[in-house]
Amino acid sequence: MPISYVTDGPADSWHDPDALPRVIGRAGAMRRGMSRHAIDRRVASGRWRRVLPRTYLTTDTFTDLDRLNAALIFAGPGAALSGAAALYASAIKRIAMPASVLVLVPPGGDGRSTSWVQLRPSARPARLQLAPGPRRVEVARAAADHVVTLRRLDDVRALIARVIQDGHCTLDELGGELESGPRRGSAHFRQALEEVGWGAASAPEAKAARILRRAGVTGFEQNARINLPDGRRRYVDFYWESLRAALEID
Asked: What is the DSSP letter of 136?
């Protein structure tokens, strides 16, 4: 699904102040029948607060969700969250609300990054997350845009393993994003995907697998299932069948 237009509330609700969205753009307010003078008067009186250029908060508290919606309204038509902001909106574990919100926008626009919003023109097709919440790209694209900003390989490993294990996206989807995206800064991304493809289920396991292979220790199976004589099953992180040896990473 291509990125589509970002709205900021129903067009016929301007006459009821209680029906206004929490965050509104100047253009959206004018579509509701407000004049520039009326908008400026609300800001001057403190009823509205300017949170970004031409973007206003119509209530008292500025929540994380308001920040994400404000970034989208400021970015304009064709915008969608990506990177950590999209992962946070998709409730990916251990992803905090980022200080800088990444928004993908169509190329050729005249918008510029400002304050805490990073606008990134992107001609590459993007699919939207079909879930409630702010307009955002699917997890695979968001993860790909985020991992290239991470400096530590273990952090990249952990995120890749997490989104796959929790069912947010597949290894093939992430691989497609790797091949379609920029190569600059993608070395850790590529290595983490290769390790997950080998069967690593966590960042420590991925690191251990890399160390073993570099040392010439091979012949193991990762996340192996062992069938015990009494009918029980046990899963181990590394298993050498010929040696009947197992390794567990705690």
From this structure: B
89 closest CA partner among 48, 43, 139? 139
In order of 22, 43, 46, 118, the CA distances from 57 in angstroms are 6, 9, 10, 19
* Residue-level length of the chain: 250
Is residue 76 within 8 Å of 109, Cβ to Cβ? yes
* CA distance readout (Å), 157 to 16, 111, 215: 49, 34, 20
Which distant-in-sequence residues (6+ apart) come within 8 Å of 119 by Cβ? 75, 103, 105, 109, 111, 112, 113
C-alpha dist (Å) from residue 138 to 1, 81, 181: 10, 9, 15
Helices (H), 57-99: 64-75, 83-89
Long-range contacts of 43-50 (CB under 8 A, 24+ apart): 48/24
* pLDDT tens-place values along the chain, 250 residues long: 333 334 444 333 344 545 789 999 999 999 999 999 999 999 999 999 999 999 999 999 999 999 999 999 999 999 999 999 999 999 999 999 999 999 999 998 888 999 899 999 998 888 999 999 999 999 999 999 999 999 999 999 999 999 998 999 988 899 889 988 888 889 999 999 988 765 666 678 778 888 898 899 988 888 787 888 888 888 788 899 999 999 988 7
The three-point CA angle 21-87-197 to 5° equals 160
